[in-house]
Amino acid sequence: MNLPRLDVADLRPPATPSEPVGTFRVVARATGGPARAAVLHTAHGPVHTPCFMPVGTYGAVKGLDPDELADVGSQVILGNAYHLAHRPGADRIAAAGGLHGFGGWPGPILTDSGGYQVFSLRGLQRIDDHGVTYRTHFDGSRHRMTPRSVLEVQAKLGSDICMVLDHCPPGDATIHAVAEAMERTTRWAREAATLRRGILADGQLLFGIVQGGTDLALRRSHLAEIAALPFDGLALGGLSVGEPVPEMHATLRAIAPEMPEDRPRYVMGIGTPIDLLVAMASGVDMFDCVIPTRHARNGQLLTFGGRINVRNGRFRDAHVPPDPDCACSTCRRFTLAFLRHLHEQGDPLYGRLATIHNLHFFHELVAMVRRGLVEGRGDAVLDELFRVISRHYGPAGGSGAA
């Protein structure tokens, strides 16, 4: 790869003067496309974008403590309001000082509303125009989720960035079902925008969500409706939910650059390394996915040279780091042979070391683009990373170059 690799210190965002919570400032742009670098100020510090957010469904990224998360370059962690509201419960978390006090993470936290999880409970939920009645996958108990209730839960969690309740249809939904979900999402978004001041604390930001599947006309129509509301940022939802990857990439390329310039752009639930590059090249600021952490636990190490399956027998005597050019603590101290041994024995240390490496890889990929944009080399950096990542993780789908 014709790009210098980054050290651990390079992944940490620079010191930034404090500005009012909610301030969003674009600091650099690509010359040949919509890619950009920016800073979003939250109650728990600035977020330098583009930014990958590790998923900590229950308020913690599995296997890592807050210091380790910071060491690999994490700026924001993502929790899930649905899961946390049921286990251990929003009131218990509030009594512990919110998610920051409960889990010891000092930086910004974004919480999803949990709507996606509820809508995934097919056969266990009933949707109406005012919310969703559902039975949990935990114990089958009956509950109700509304635009108000998800704000109340996130207020108790103390999230820096809260998400509204939206209706996320599956990737194979009909146009009629997608349009119906958009209409419902708009109704709920308007309600949330009205209610937020009486529920969320000062300093809690609220993002709206744009639906529309991969139909560009529907996406543009819904973007206009959600962008007209006073949200602090906007997200693209309903992607990577079963639709063909080329269609998802084409949607990102078409819609992300049309999102408001003066607010953060977030794409929910993506992605693979190539997904991240497509998103960044399209002007997206924030994204999250379970891939680096889940793949780590399942024996997959991700590198700029491709995936490594540590279960492969040929690594029994591989007394070399997973990636000799990687600066993460796993690659600096341990060999593939040792990691394979730990995985084979079911030792929990394997999951921690693999997660450190995979998160470092994701944060390094994003930091390369962020640094390139700030230094005026964003187009060249993106071109080189597309060349390298496409070779090992598949080409970017969709129409035209990123």
Structure description:
- The two termini are 19 Å apart.
- Mean pLDDT is 95; it is low at 398-402.
- Helix content is 42%, strand content 18%.
- An 8-stranded parallel beta sheet has the order 4-14-13-12-11-10-6-5.
- α14 runs antiparallel to α15 (378-393).
- It has helices spanning 8-11, 66-71, 81-95, 98-103, 115-119, 147-157, 175-199, 216-227, 245-255, 273-281, 291-297, 329-333, 336-344, 348-374, 378-393; strands at residues 24-29, 36-42, 45-49, 51-54, 77-80, 109-112, 125-128, 131-135, 142-145, 161-163, 205-210, 233-236, 265-267, 286-289, 300-303, 306-309.
- It has a domain at 52-288: Alpha-Beta Barrel (TIM Barrel).
- A hairpin with a 6-residue loop joins β1 (24-29) and β2 (36-42).
- By secondary structure, it is α/β, with parallel strands linked by helices.
Write the layout of secondary structure elements.
Blueprint: H1 8-11, E1 24-29, E2 36-42, E3 45-49, E4 51-54, H2 66-71, E5 77-80, H3 81-95, H4 98-103, E6 109-112, H5 115-119, E7 125-128, E8 131-135, E9 142-145, H6 147-157, E10 161-163, H7 175-199, E11 205-210, H8 216-227, E12 233-236, H9 245-255, E13 265-267, H10 273-281, E14 286-289, H11 291-297, E15 300-303, E16 306-309, H12 329-333, H13 336-344, H14 348-374, H15 378-393
Parallel strand pairs: 4-14, 5-6, 6-10, 10-11, 11-12, 12-13, 13-14
Antiparallel strand pairs: 1-2, 2-3, 7-8, 8-9, 15-16
Helix pairs in contact: 3-6, 6-7, 7-8, 10-14, 10-15, 11-14, 13-14, 14-15
